[in-house]
Design a protein that fits this description.
42% of the residues lie in helices and 15% in strands. By secondary structure, it is α/β, with parallel strands linked by helices. The structure holds NADPH dihydro-nicotinamide-adenine-dinucleotide phosphate and 2-hydroxyethylsulfonic acid (8X3). The site of 2-hydroxyethylsulfonic acid has 6 residues, from loops.
């Protein structure tokens, strides 16, 4: 039987690439994000190979999350795979000069948003005693770097939630995993630097960063293991990256 996946943050980067690889494998899709036009364009493309449903909401808006998920048509209500991917970094300032709106944004999306979506979707998985949740953490779930204070804290929280969710859900036959990427060349840094493309491009210069497709391939690997196999936690780095702070660059 065809599986149904629910992907948050499918309008760009890792989430979009994951939607594309899942579509190739005929997984039915619920694709989510705030930018409606991007969702619509992606849905047109992916509908050539699988059934696609759009959900346009902000994961940080609790009511919007529950309203959107409750509005799913019957044929998309049984979610087999949840990819908790939506999230971003906002700013790279030291804690004494950081913008509290940036902090709220990261905490509300990366932690609370992930929790709201999980709370809306997991009860049905528990009822069906089946399902898989993949939480997109980061190398920043394991290391902290200068100026990464709050972003890294949100990703450390994802690491803790991943462990906690697995403890809560494995007894119901639900697989819970975290995929923790190092530097991936997506819109991530453009968002972090508030649209400053030159500053964002600097992050990925002098070495070969991971691509969104590299991460999507790994996510598909995780979901395609036999059901008794749960890849619980995996760190994926560019070859040039050794830690959260050590990246070998050549110019
Ligand atoms: P992108 O900026 O390309 O994608 C982020 C996605 O998240 C977009 O689709 C965006 O959609 C969505 N999103 C962000 N905030 C919200 C929100 N409040 N409500 C709904 N959707 C939201 O970055 P990536 O693809 O790189 O990031 C995806 C995930 O991977 C994030 O959790 C990030 O922390 C993590 N990650 C990224 C790494 C990297 O180096 N790029 C490395 C490690 C982890 P929209 O704006 O349309 O709502
Ligand atoms: C994104 C990777 O190192 O920019 O989580 O924080 S990093």
């Amino acid at each position: 039987m065809k599986k149904t996946a629910f992907i948050t943050g499918a309008t760009s980067g890792i989430g979009k690439a994951t939607a594309e690889i899942f579509a190739k494998h005929k997984i039915r899709l619920v694709i989510c994000g705030r930018r409606l036009e991007r969702l619509q364009n992606l849905a047109i493309e992916l509908s050539k190979t699988t059934e696609v449903q759009i959900l346009n909401f902000d994961v940080a808006d609790k009511n919007a999350v529950f309203n959107a998920i409750n509005s799913l048509p019957k044929e998309f209500q049984d979610i087999d795979i949840l990819i908790n991917n939506a999230g971003n970094a906002h700013g790279l300032a030291p804690v004494f000069s950081g913008d509290t709106d940036d902090w709220d944004n990261m905490i509300d999306s990366n932690i609370k948003g992930l929790l709201y979506v999980t709370k809306a979707i997991s009860p049905n998985m528990v009822k069906r005693k089946s399902g898989q949740i993949i939480n997109i953490g980061s190398i920043s779930s394991k290391y902290v770097y200068e100026g990464g204070n709050v972003y890294c804290a949100t990703k450390h929280a994802v690491e803790a939630l991943n462990q906690g969710m697995r403890m809560d859900l494995s007894k119901y036959g639900i697989r819970v995993s975290a995929v923790h990427p190092g530097l991936v060349d997506t819109e991530f840094s453009t968002v972090r630097f508030k649209g400053d493309k030159n500053k964002a491009d600097e992050v990925y210069k002098g070495f070969q960063a991971l691509t969104a497709d590299d991460i999507a391939d790994l996510i598909y690997f995780v979901v395609s293991r036999p059901y008794h196999v749960n890849i619980s936690d995996i760190l994926i780095l560019p070859t040039a990256q050794a830690s959260g702070t050590q990246i070998h660059k050549e110019f």
